[in-house]
Amino acid sequence: MKWRGRRGSRNVIDRRGVSAGRAGGIGGVGLIAVLVIGYFLGIDVTPLLNGGGVPVQSGESRELSAQEQAAGQFVSVVLADTEEVWGQVFPEQLGRDYRPPQLVLFSGRVASGCGGASAATGPFYCPSDRRAYLDTQFFATLQGRLGAKGDFAAAYVVAHEIAHHVQNELGILGQVNEAKAAAGERERNALSVRTELQADCLSGVWAHYAEARLGTVEPGDLDEALNAARQIGDDVLQRSAGRTPMPHTFTHGSAAQRQDWFARGYERGAVEDCDTFAASRP
Known about the structure:
The chain is built from ten helices and eight strands. The protein is α/β, with parallel strands linked by helices. Helix 8 packs antiparallel against helix 10. The longest helix has 30 residues.
């Protein structure tokens, strides 16, 4: 992905200048399995870890490393690209203006309009304050532990969280939350899967225009995004955590589903192709 030296967004709030400490606890494969569950199933697993390997803010300021600074610049550029793409797509396809979100970079723990969260929660979007939240250390987990390598795989993660903001702007998240409140566990999980797959599709819409209009997509980038979509499929993650995949517990969709919906969005760049809720099978 062509990102170095390009314009960044002014909507990044960097809270990483607070040092984080780590306490002892679960190690090795056990820690990885628990973190995988937390990152992608939307669960804050901090209590399960008993302090093991989860950063906790100490309140002491610190200098950001060169790697952290580069990660922050990268996120800022990707966020700027989403602003440009959705700023064009909204009036062209939806007949309305796009209001971009803020993106908060944090290290260890963070407070949001949706409550407190830790690094174990993974990247998330909070509709209450219209902000996306990301611990940039997640990129190392994405590449090293989950096998989703490449800068476009990381860009896909950012684009996915911004896609949740797009859903929020369109009133979709509010409707889903209302439906969840009246549903049982299986139905809530099914609604979550359709919500996440739609975000994957909208990420594909972003990738379509990032390539067609911004010219930032390089050979191999789409393969990186599709591989990332596969590696974070619920079935793959449950196997990685030593569990037998149980579709009724999925909250984000299988690897095949996530790849398929991203590809649908990318193919034409049409928001109308991303209606996972109208599909007989997501």
